[in-house]
C-alpha cells in the first residue's frame, strides 16, 4: 500500500486562504489526502460550501481578525473597504483608520441594487460621507456598486487603476458584505490566474489572508471578514439567514399607526409606537418577512402564544436558540427625519414631524440605533 504524500509546509486553501492540514476534520483547513490532486486545491469546508451550499461553524477568532488587519498599517497599500448599504452601520469596520494608518481607503458601498429605483443618489452619497466621517473613517473616494448586478465595477476598477501605483490592494470588510464576490471580479480584470475565492451567503467564508498575484508583480489581498455579533445575520440559522438578507429591491412598507400599536417583523423583531400623534412609519426589511400589526397591550401575549407560528419565521425551535429579546426605547424629537436601525434586519423611517416615543425589541446584542434617514 502506497503511503499518502504529506501536505507541503505552508500550503494554503485557494478558496479561503487557511493553511491546509489532514489531521483533524473539526479544525479549519482540513483536506482529505486524496483531494490534494484536485485543481484548485481547496479545503473540505470550501468544497462543501461551493458544491453543496452547506454552511460551516468554523470561523476565526476575533483577536485573529484584528491581528491580520493590524498588518495593513505597516504596508504601502491601497485599501478597499466594502460595506453593505442594507446594513451600513453594522458592517462599517469601527476603528479601521487605526489599522490602516495613512494608507488611502476607497469605500465600496455594495448591494445598491436593494435600494428603491427612485432613490436620490446624491443624497445617499452625502449620507454615506457623513456617516463614515462620524465613525472616524477618512475616504479617498466612495463608489456605489452591486456585485450581484455587476454595477459600478468600471468605476471601482478605474479608481484602483488611478490610485494603486505599485501598491498591493487590500480588501477588507465584515462578513457577508460581498467581499469575495468583488475580489473575483478584480481577479478577472487584473490577473490571468485561474482562481476563484469561495463565496457563499454564510459568515466567515474567508479564514485567512488570500494573496492573488497580479500581472505586474503586486497582489490583491483578501482579508477575513470581521465577525460582528451585533449583526442579526451572525445570530440566525443558515436557513433564516437567507430570509432576513434582502436579495431583491426593497419595497417600502408604509403603516399608519396610532399610539399604542405594535408591528411584528415575523418573529425576528418588534416595533412599538408608544406615544405621539397619528403618523406613518416606513419599514425597509426583506420582502420575505411578514409584518403583523396589533395593539401594544396585546403584544407580549401574542408573542408568547404565537411566536414561531403566526409570527414566523423563524420557527419556535430557531427562536429558542437566539438570545432573549431586549427592549430599546427612543424619544424622537420634532422634525428629526430619522431611521430606527436594526443591524442585519433593516430599518424603520419615522415619517411624522411632531415627535414620538417608540421602542424596538430584538435579541440581546443586536445593534439598534437612531440615525439620520438614509432615504
Automatic annotation (TrEMBL):
It comes from the Bacteria. CDD domains: YqeH. PROSITE patterns: G_CP. InterPro entries: G_CP_dom, GTP-bd, GTP-bd_ribosome_bgen_YqeH, Mito_lipid_metab_GTPase, NOA1/YqeH-like_C, P-loop_NTPase. Residues 66-229 form the CP-type G domain. Pfam families: MMR_HSR1, YqeH-like_C. Gene3D superfamilies: P-loop containing nucleotide triphosphate hydrolases. This is Ribosome biogenesis GTPase YqeH. It comes from Paenibacillus shirakamiensis. The lineage of its organism: Bacteria, Bacillati, Bacillota, Bacilli, Bacillales.
